[in-house]
Structure to design on (357 residues):
């Protein structure tokens, strides 16, 4: 039986995409009605919608909306590049847009042929959405096999630390890292989640705590600077995160702050797992040094809830992601199994359809 989340971040209707505006959560639930690919791009750039798998899904729907306006395949390809550049680090966006482009031929000029192509693109976008939901289910099941043995005592829950948001608000289904947590909860495995606030945009504080409470999961919000303290005190059994891009050697880009969690986990002998679908892997790059890191608006650092927290003349850096070397990762949980150890070889096996659980 499939695990269900109580959160629905996007709804596709004919010729429009409804997006739950994540900038307003947890205080207000409001859906944006997006009727053009440019509106979808804006929602992605402004982080009304975020999370690598969900960005990819929205990229597919943006292509469906773009197909209505594109005159020919040349223009559609130009639009596709514009969509892909809306968030450069998340490889799922490139994967989804390219998947649609590779099976699209809009060379015909007659209206009947164009309508058929438009329908084909919309069906493919829906398939990408549904496919991600199934991947999330399998990631949850595979992750459950990994975290169950981590439980130390029969009368205490597994205490998991996570960063950012990796649930339904970030994917097409129950989530990646959060999907593992939700699966454990639904299967009756006691689990307590420590949620790192995730500065500067506070996705952990605003979104992950929201999803935990919506799904009846015990959670405690902590500041990013408290993570090492709790690890050192023996209050964390497991660190589990998502990913925005994984290189062929296992190096993983994720929300800024993930790398330091991996280092702290190693220092304190705590397993550090990444959960991600195969669409997050980028086999074209050899290591994390090749992953482009998005730098965002300095205002995200200088302001909290619209109010300044430092002098106007303060110099700012605001990288949105960092890269965790594969050597710090205990294992990567995917829909086809869990890879660990020789990541380069085992990742190749994943794409050769060799299940590794």
């Amino acid at each position: 039986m499939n695990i269900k989340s109580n959160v629905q971040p996007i709804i596709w209707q004919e010729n429009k995409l409804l997006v739950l505006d994540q900038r307003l959560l947890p205080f207000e639930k409001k859906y944006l009605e997006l009727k053009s690919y440019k509106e979808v791009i804006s929602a992605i750039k402004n982080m009304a919608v975020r999370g690598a798998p969900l960005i990819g899904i929205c990229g597919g729907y943006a292509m469906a909306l773009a197909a209505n306006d594109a005159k020919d395949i040349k223009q559609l390809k130009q639009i596709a590049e514009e969509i892909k550049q809306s968030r450069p680090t998340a490889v799922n966006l490139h994967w989804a847009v390219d998947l649609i482009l590779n099976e699209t031929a809009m060379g015909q000029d007659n209206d009947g042929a164009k309508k058929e192509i438009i329908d084909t693109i919309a069906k493919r976008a829906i398939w990408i959405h549904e496919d991600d939901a199934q991947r999330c289910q399998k990631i949850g099941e595979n992750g459950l096999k990994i975290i169950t043995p981590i439980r130390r005592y029969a009368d205490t829950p597994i205490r998991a630390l996570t960063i950012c948001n990796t649930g339904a608000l970030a994917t097409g289904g129950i989530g990646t890292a959060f999907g593992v947590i939700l699966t454990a909860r639904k299967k009756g495995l006691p689990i307590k989640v420590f949620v790192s606030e995730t500065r500067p945009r506070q996705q952990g504080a605003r979104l992950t705590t929201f999803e935990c409470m919506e799904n009846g999961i015990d959670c405690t919000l902590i500041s990013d600077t408290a993570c090492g303290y709790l690890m050192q005190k023996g209050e964390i059994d497991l660190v589990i995160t998502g990913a925005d891009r994984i290189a062929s050697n296992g190096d993983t880009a994720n929300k800024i702050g993930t790398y330091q969690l991996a280092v702290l986990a190693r220092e304190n002998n705590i397993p550090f797992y990444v959960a991600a679908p195969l669409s997050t892997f980028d086999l074209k790059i050899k290591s994390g040094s090749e992953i482009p890191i998005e730098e965002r608006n300095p205002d995200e650092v200088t302001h909290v809830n619209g109010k300044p927290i430092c002098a106007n003349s303060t110099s700012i850096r605001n990288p949105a992601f960092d890269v965790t070397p594969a050597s710090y990762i205990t294992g990567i949980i995917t829909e086809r199994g869990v890879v660990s150890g020789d990541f380069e070889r085992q990742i190749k096996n994943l794409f050769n359809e060799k299940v590794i659980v």
Remarks:
- The chain is about 40% helix and 15% strand.
- Residues 163 and 196 are 5 Å apart (CA to CA).
